[in-house]
Amino acid sequence: MAESTSSRSSWAAERAAMGPPMPYREGALSYEPTVFCRCRLKSLRRISWSDGNPGRRFFRCRRCRTPSDYGFFSWIDDEYPQFLKDLLLDLRNAVWSLKDIEWMQQAVSKEIEALKENNHQLEVEDLCKAEELKAI
Ligand SMILES: [Zn+2]
């Protein structure tokens, strides 16, 4: 089943908001030598998981997405060949799909537990009503 470009982008944006598909091996500030932003803070080293630059590392101001963001952004790695981009996107999407399945399994397990509890309550109520009927 083919997905349209817009729904794939939307899907990727939703997943990107959930965080990186792979855990970082090092903290965003655990690198040397230090790269300073224009605001004189040590820059964050991150990994892009966007459709255009999957797996590509970059430096970014710590204040990104805040009003005091100075807009500092710098790629560390050169752009990857399209083959590697496609491969990384396929792997990224596979990880996100597995995480979706895991999330759905957890949600289903919680629902099952809630239904079991509800079922137990109904059984108790039925027993009480049966006792009431016997007493009549
Ligand atoms: Zn900065």
Automatic annotation (TrEMBL):
<dbReference type="GO" id="GO:0008270">
    <property type="term" value="F:zinc ion binding"/>
</dbReference>
<feature type="domain" description="GRF-type">
    <location>
        <begin position="37"/>
        <end position="79"/>
    </location>
</feature>
<keyword id="KW-0175">Coiled coil</keyword>
<keyword id="KW-0862">Zinc</keyword>
<feature type="coiled-coil region">
    <location>
        <begin position="98"/>
        <end position="125"/>
    </location>
</feature>
<dbReference type="Pfam" id="PF06839">
    <property type="entry name" value="Zn_ribbon_GRF"/>
</dbReference>
<keyword id="KW-0863">Zinc-finger</keyword>
<dbReference type="InterPro" id="IPR010666">
    <property type="entry name" value="Znf_GRF"/>
</dbReference>
<protein>
    <recommendedName>
        <fullName>GRF-type domain-containing protein</fullName>
    </recommendedName>
</protein>
<keyword id="KW-0479">Metal-binding</keyword>
